[in-house]
């Protein structure tokens, strides 16, 4: 009798163990010990470690810590893995220098300036982006922005930020029509311009052709059947409104350096032009009335607003005439991009994180947190509600028609 009871007890114990094992089968894996016996251990999650370098502002808690916030959101989307992040704050120039000094400690992901692309690629510190990531960069950005991320016609970065040049002006002296043309501005007032800054001078060297805008009829259309003809005024593919002998539009040729050099020398000597050497002359001049217009980047907006208040006007950079041609000044000559180290571990996961950080939603969050101007076309379209910067944003998007359409990106869950 005792033997029967003991046998029944063993059966119950075995059944209990079996049921418990079935309930946790998804978190265990079988293995054999030294004696060849089957054992079960907890299944470990894959661990991904990332080192990420960004600006001090993007890692600052005071400004929402955009970079950390986006990485945490990316980790939340990958519950099946354990993601660990290490951060360091460096300027783009300091980051490149430290990477060259010690490649082994270089980050997996970093922010760089598009002007550094050639140097980083040639130093083998920046990997080329292929496939879907490359397609994303080229399809989600204006041609001008996408080109900034290229080296030898290949994409090496995901553009995430631009600090476009803006024309700030006194509305009491200059009208919206006046500020569209540099000659008109100089005829009516003094312009403060940072002529000693190479990046600002590049707004002239990289000037693009002006494309004629189709006139609209009384119904507000351009005369086509559906009224949807593109009203683009400027285009970085750079085609003018002249035609070649075979009837096709001619591609614009870049201005010769010697031509722009000579033009800038004359421009600099114009008494109506004030060389803004420290970034403050334009602000001070607008405030005391000695300057009627000033060119600075978008980050100067708050100071300009403080100087002029409700009299402040904001516009895209104007057109100018050079060597008998009308050219559009370039408002974006550089962009900040996300780069990936070619020696990073877990390459696919690193590319996925970099792409996530460069998404439209991420750029929109960056703008909401700290006012950083996005470059992704969908994010730019959203910001058209910001009337004061509408003209500048239009130039980033290579469009002047506020009705232009874009495919919407899927919202994040």
Number of helices in the DSSP assignment: 15
Shape: elongated
Taken as a percent bin, the fraction of beta residues is 15-25%
Which whole number gives the mean pLDDT?
81
Structural class: alpha+beta
Q: Strand order of the main beta sheet, please?
A: 4-3-5-19-8
Radius of gyration of CA atoms, rounded to a whole number: 29 Å
Give the tags:
413 residues; 35% helix; disordered N terminus; five-stranded mixed beta sheet; 20% strand; 15 helices
Structure overview:
By secondary structure, the chain is α+β, with helices and mostly antiparallel strands. Helices cover 35% and strands 20% of the residues. It contains 15 helices and 19 strands. The protein has helices at 2-23, 66-76, 92-101, 117-122, 131-140, 143-148, 182-188, 198-205, 257-269, 281-288, 301-308, 347-357, 360-370, 377-382, 390-396, and strands at residues 28-32, 38-42, 47-54, 82-89, 109-113, 150-151, 154-155, 158-161, 165-170, 191-193, 208-209, 239-243, 249-251, 273-275, 293-297, 312-315, 319-322, 325-328, 336-340. A 5-stranded mixed β-sheet has the order 4-3-5-19-8. Strands 14-10-15-9-16 form a 5-stranded mixed β-sheet, sandwiched between helices. It has a 3-stranded antiparallel β-sheet with strand order 11-18-17, covered by helices on one side. Helix 10 packs parallel to helix 11. Mean pLDDT is 81; it is low at 1-27, 212-251 and 399-413.
């Amino acid at each position: 009798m005792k033997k029967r009871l003991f046998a029944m007890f063993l059966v119950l114990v075995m059944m209990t163990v079996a049921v418990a094992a079935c309930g946790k089968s998804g978190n265990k894996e079988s293995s054999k010990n030294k004696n060849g016996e089957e054992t079960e251990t907890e299944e470990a999650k894959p661990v991904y470690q990332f080192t990420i370098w960004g600006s001090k502002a993007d890692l600052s808690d005071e400004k929402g810590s955009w970079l950390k916030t986006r990485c945490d959101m990316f980790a939340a989307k990958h519950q099946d893995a354990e993601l660990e992040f290490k951060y360091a704050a460096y300027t783009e120039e300091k980051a490149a220098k430290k990477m060259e000094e010690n490649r082994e400690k270089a980050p997996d992901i970093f922010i760089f300036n598009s002007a550094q692309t050639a140097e980083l690629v040639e130093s083998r510190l920046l990997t080329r982006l292929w496939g879907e990531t490359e397609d994303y960069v080229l399809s989600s950005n204006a041609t001008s922005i996408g080109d900034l991320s290229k080296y030898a016609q290949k994409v090496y970065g995901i553009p995430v930020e631009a600090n476009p040049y803006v024309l700030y002006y006194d509305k009491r002296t200059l009208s919206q029509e006046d500020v569209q043309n540099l000659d008109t501005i100089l005829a009516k007032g003094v312009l403060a311009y940072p002529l000693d800054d190479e990046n600002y001078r590049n707004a002239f060297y990289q000037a693009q052709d002006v494309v004629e805008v189709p006139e609209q009829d009384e119904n507000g259309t351009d005369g086509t059947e559906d009224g949807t003809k593109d009203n683009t005024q400027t285009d970085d593919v750079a085609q003018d409104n002249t035609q070649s002998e075979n009837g096709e539009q001619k591609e614009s040729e870049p201005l010769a350096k010697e031509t722009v050099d000579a033009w800038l020398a004359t421009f600099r000597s114009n008494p109506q032009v004030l060389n803004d050497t420290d970034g403050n002359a334009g602000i001070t001049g607008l405030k005391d009335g000695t300057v009627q217009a000033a060119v600075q980047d978008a980050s100067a907006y708050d100071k300009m607003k403080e100087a002029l208040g409700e009299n402040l006007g904001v516009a895209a950079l104007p057109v100018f005439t050079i060597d008998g041609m009308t050219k559009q000044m370039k408002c974006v000559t550089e962009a900040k991009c996300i780069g990936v180290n070619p020696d990073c571990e877990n390459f696919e996961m690193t590319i996925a994180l970099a792409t996530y950080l460069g998404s439209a939603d991420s750029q929109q969050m960056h703008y909401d947190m700290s006012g950083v101007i996005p470059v992704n076309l969908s994010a730019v379209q959203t910001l058209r509600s910001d009337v004061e910067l509408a003209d500048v944003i239009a130039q980033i998007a290579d469009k002047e028609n506020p009705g232009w359409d874009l495919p919407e990106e899927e919202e994040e869950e």
